[in-house]
Amino acid sequence: MRLNIQKFFSAIFAPPFRSLPLVVWLYYVWCFLAHPGSQILLGNLPDADDYMYLAQISDWLNGQSWFDIVQHRLNPPDGVAIDFSRLTQIPMAILVLLLRPLLGLTAASLVMAAILPPLWLALLFLALRWTAETFQSKNWARVTSFIALFATYLIYQFSPGHIDHHGLTALLVTVAFGFTMRMIRQPDLSKWAVGAGFFLALALAVALEILPWLIVIVSWVGVWAMQKGHKAARAGAVLSLSLFLSSFLFLIITKAPHHWFDIDTMAYSAVYVVFTSLIALCFAGLAFAERTRVALRYVIGVLSAAVSGLIFLSYFPELVGGPYGGVNPELAKLMFDSITEAMPIAKSATSAIEVFLRLVWPVMAFAVSVYFFRRAKKDERWLWGLLLYSLTAAILLATFYQIRCMVFAQLFSVLAMSAALQRAMIWLGKNCPIRALAFMQLGLLLVIAPLPMLIFPALVDNRPFNTGMLMFPVVKASEECDMRSLIQALDKQSLNTTHLMPIMNEMDSGSELLFRTPYSVLGAPYHTNVGGNLDSAHFFTSADPIEARDIMQRRKAGLVVICRAEAAFYVNPQGKSFAQRLVDGEVPHWLNKVDYPGERDFLLFELNTPSKGGA
To answer: Could you say which architecture CATH assigns to the domain 479-612?
Structure first.
């Protein structure tokens, strides 16, 4: 069957935009494959988490237990429990297994990392369309893919190579949001409530970072159930029961039986099953009082939520600070002061204008949501109210908690701005002269979609994400720490004497070293790696080489690896840091610098043992 070119292109630009999601998806993928400096084509991944996932999958496929999530080569001899859910790793492992016979494990893992995120993006486009259909015309719902293309904080999570859980959690929250919207529209159909609870539980099992959005959605459903009673109260009870049972199911699936009752607030554990059970109890009380007066339902709902919340937080007060409120204070300062996405906009921005520019798109979406909320019919106000509530929470959290919440601020903005585009285009079609209509529509597209993001793009490692091409350039921003030549040096037989000894490394390089080499490492950017990260930081920050040597000997490390660009991170007010000394060539007698072919970014040193003439 021949492709009708005219029909295909008309389907891009006119409702119902049948070809638009495909064109947007192809354009996004092309951006990462067409650039001559594309890092994904060189086998480089965007983030440390991506390499850690590959290391975990490699260990799993090589015989590590499904229930064993410890990375045994990180912070030896104890290892570190990496709280990446095995559920997330299932599709990754399937793709690697399919490609492994043809490419080998390492190449298959890298190819999988390149193709899986675009598949998640295709599902996100479907989920956005499906969710948008609850409050705008189906003929216009596909335009969400065009709007999403310019939501660069969101879209970056789906770039080829970016296999960490952030993109998947955005997808799961979108699906849960869609189920919740449909539940509000049709409270008598239990399938929507069951689906909302299931996907919220799945998202929580995948990543604790979605806890705020679980609370936002559930609390709004609670207000809806208190106000409406009857079917709404029963639907809320079904959602909460589904949430509890699903969270319990995922605990059984992902944890060994002897860990089912572990109390751990910084990883998915029984703590969060208890949390969802309390939510279910609160909604059960509302369902029991579904036919009482509105005032009494509010008393029951607010009191039960307040009492349950206070009891829960009295046992786990660290969760007041979020899912990672219990992180070691010294490590929390080290990580959250240096990881860009962990900083709030209010802290990372240099001026009030920068704060405004970063938030201009979500603020526009907020204003749009207020407009639609005020004009909506009585029942539809609950839909726009949920979107408005979610946007408000996302904007506040991105501004004052962590900038990574911009992912959800833009996710919710896509839904609001697509509805605004539909309304504005219809108005223009009715009120503008035919000659000026095309220009007016183009101007409207620029205002609603790309212009705000082009004025102030997403930042990745403090660099704009959408420069270098028309939009998205190279996947990896940290090009100054390319370790490909270092990997070849570490494979040399001349280093066999220290082959089994851990590497003393700075934090950012640990995950990639684990994936690409058989070595053990001390540093990697994970909140559970307390001992390894603190010893690594103390080693490189120390102004006393003898103190640094003692740390290295205590950790039985045989090699030192540091990227030249990272030395400036280690500052010691009492004198020059040991990291800076190494970069400046001030190598103590107990270390030997290892020169290797292609040396550029990374410096490599090995312990100077007496057999090599050291003192």
So the answer is: 3-Layer(aba) Sandwich (3.40)
Sign for the CA dihedral angle at 51, 55, 61, 62 comes to: positive
Give 150-159 pLDDT, tens digit per residue: 888 898 899 8
Instruction: Please give the helix or strand (H or E) that residue 80 lies within, else none.
Output: strand 80-81
pLDDT at 388: 97
Angle 39-476-21 (CA atoms, 0-180°, nearest 5)? 85
CA distance 353 to 371: 25
Dihedral pair phi/psi, residue 503, rounded to 5°: -95, 130
Please report, for the chain, the start and end positions of each structural domain, with discontinuous segments joined by +.
Answer: 479-612
Alpha-carbon distance 220 to 383, whole Å? 10
Residue 25 CA to residue 12 CA, distance in Å, equals 12
| Global model pTM greater than 0.85 | yes
Judge contact between 250 and 197, C-beta under 8 A.
no
Structural tokens at position 602? 């990374």
- Burial (CB < 10 A; 0-12, 13-18, 19+), residue 380, is middle
CA distance 58 to 517: 12
591 beta partners: 607
Which residues does 611 contact at the CB level (< 8 Å), separation at least 6? none
Sign of the Cα pseudo-torsion (215, 218, 224, 228, in order): negative
